[in-house]
Amino acid sequence: MATEEAKAVVPESVLKKRKREEQWALAKKQAADAKKKKDRENRKLIFTRAQQYAKEYESQGLGKYGIICMEDLVHEIMTVGPHFKEANNFLWPFKLKAPLGGLKKKRRHYVEGGDAGNREDYINELIRRMN
């Protein structure tokens, strides 16, 4: 008997407490996993609904004229195609404010230091100021 090791006796209340805590931790982990899965599905649903709305909006306005994507819209406007007026009217809701900081010398051409005329690559700066 001297060779037998004395086992530590654990009270029954401590064992019950451990079991309860393990069950609680397992339930909490399962709830967290379920929430993650639900959030992932909701996020996917939100993005698909947004894409679907955009497609419906474009098809309602320009689908009957054969303009179904941004490239078609840009092409129609740049080439002044047969449905230019419809494409241009589709963009009317996008309004721009006056440029931040105002315009300088709007009577002079852009090349001469004014604001009028062809800006070529610098048009994006003006659009950023107008948003």
UniProtKB/TrEMBL annotation:
Gene3D superfamilies linked to this entry: Ribosomal protein L30, ferredoxin-like fold domain (3.30.1390.20)
Pfam families linked to this entry: Ribosomal_L30_N
InterPro entries, per database record: Ribo_uL30_ferredoxin-like_sf, Ribosomal_uL30, Ribosomal_uL30_euk_arc, Ribosomal_uL30_N_euk
GO BP terms: maturation of LSU-rRNA from tricistronic rRNA transcript (SSU-rRNA, 5.8S rRNA, LSU-rRNA)
Protein's UniProt keywords contain GTP-binding: no
Top-level taxon of the source organism: Eukaryota
CDD domains linked: Ribosomal_L7_archeal_euk
Any one annotated GO CC term: cytosolic large ribosomal subunit
MF terms (GO), sorted A to Z: RNA binding; structural constituent of ribosome
UniProt KW keywords: Ribonucleoprotein, Ribosomal protein
Keyword Ribonucleoprotein: yes
PANTHER family, alphabetized: 60S RIBOSOMAL PROTEIN L7, LARGE RIBOSOMAL SUBUNIT PROTEIN UL30
Stated name of the protein: Uncharacterized protein
